[in-house]
Amino acid sequence: MSRILIFILLIMNLSLSAQKVHKISLTPKKSINDTDFSITKIIDNRVNKDNIGNVRKGMNNKNVSASFDKSFELEILFAMSKIVPRKKEHTEIGMLFHNFNITEIITNTKETGHCFIEMEFVQEIDSVLYSLGYFEVEVSNSGLDVTNSHGNRIVKALKQCVDEFRETDWRNNKSKFVFEEPKDAVFNYNEIPKKGMYQSFNKMALNEPYSEEDLTFETKSAKKFTHYYPKLADGKLRRKTYFISDGRDVYIKASQYSYGKYFTKVLDKGRYYYFEDKVQDSNTAAAAAFGLAGALISSASNTVKPYILDTDDGKIYTLSERKLSTLISKHPEIIKTYRQSKRKLADKKAAIIALNKTFE
Questions:
Q1: How many domains does the chain have?
Q2: Is the pTM of this model over 0.85?
Q3: Are residues 243 and 215 in the same domain?
Q4: Quick one: 191 and 309 in the same domain?
Q5: Residue 95, CA distances (Å) to 44, 82, 100 in order
């Protein structure tokens, strides 16, 4: 009996080892021929370059990291050579990727595969890189098993980027630098950032918005949580925008901690910017235990999560029990109050508010 058990455990271990990384190759079947440009350079500007997202594999629908067969740059460049065939008379341009994520969500009756891309078309002129246009694309479809169709969704998303780009007056839009020399900046958390739109935390720390245009927010609410979609007078944002200040409140782009294309409002400002969001949790207990069959008797959960933006390093963290314990470890009164609470979302928020007051 013990030998059989050891054999079963060995097989399970080998199966899990084989599932450590899911490899994806891109094989575009159709080309876009009526363009006057070719893609000859791919720039990977993603924060996390370790993978391109996660998929579900195996009988237990285990979360597995996904990556390309080739390097990120080579795989995308190969795909673009098929999507936009190169011609001698074409203008050579590049694609710069800020975000590139795939994921799978299990609901009551199906699986949904997602691909989210945030990128800019760029052109190098006299050793200077210019932006020709900023685009966000999301492609989703559903089925009983979406893991093996991620390559198709990625190709579709890349084609959509090209289609949207070629509808623009891109030859007359190369007026914005993509890269700039970094500057040391200390964020002044005692003041609200200057009104405007910011491309990065560093720019917000420097109080250097790329635009101070007036904008409005289209809002979509669900059970007390509001998602904000910024709108300019002439349409959507034209450049990568991760932070917005209206002079009173600060809004954070959700793609920095999830796959959302919306913004969330900061609820408490100080040393730590505290905010909350309701994000769809793709890892429900039933799904993890029994796969899609288990998900049939469960439901996809919209999980409310607390987050903080640490104004010291500019990074966003989920406010887990461990993270909160570390933050308040030197403040016994806050620890005592929190331990006496029910440790719910409101209690975490109260702890951060109290912590921020110690920095005033």
A1: 3
A2: no
A3: yes
A4: yes
A5: 9, 15, 12
Token digits of residue 48 = 């996390």
Is 63 a member of any domain? yes
Same domain, 161 and 63: yes
Q: How far apart are CA 340 and CA 334, in angstroms?
A: 10
The pairs formed by 32-37 with CB atoms below 8 angstroms and a separation of 24 or more are 32/83, 32/84, 32/159, 32/162, 32/163, 32/166, 33/85, 35/84, 35/90, 35/162, 35/166, 36/89, 36/90, 36/91, 37/84, 37/90, 37/91, 37/92, 37/93, 37/166, 37/170
For the chain, 360 residues long, give each residue's pLDDT as a single digit of tens.
Answer: 456 655 555 555 544 444 588 999 999 999 998 899 999 999 998 878 889 988 888 767 788 899 999 999 999 999 999 999 999 999 999 999 988 999 888 766 778 899 999 999 999 988 888 889 889 899 998 887 799 999 999 999 999 999 999 999 998 877 666 555 556 678 999 999 999 999 889 889 999 998 898 899 999 886 677 899 998 887 777 678 999 999 999 999 998 888 778 999 999 999 999 999 987 544 433 332 333 333 333 334 467 899 999 999 888 999 999 999 999 999 999 999 999 999 999 999 999 999 999 999
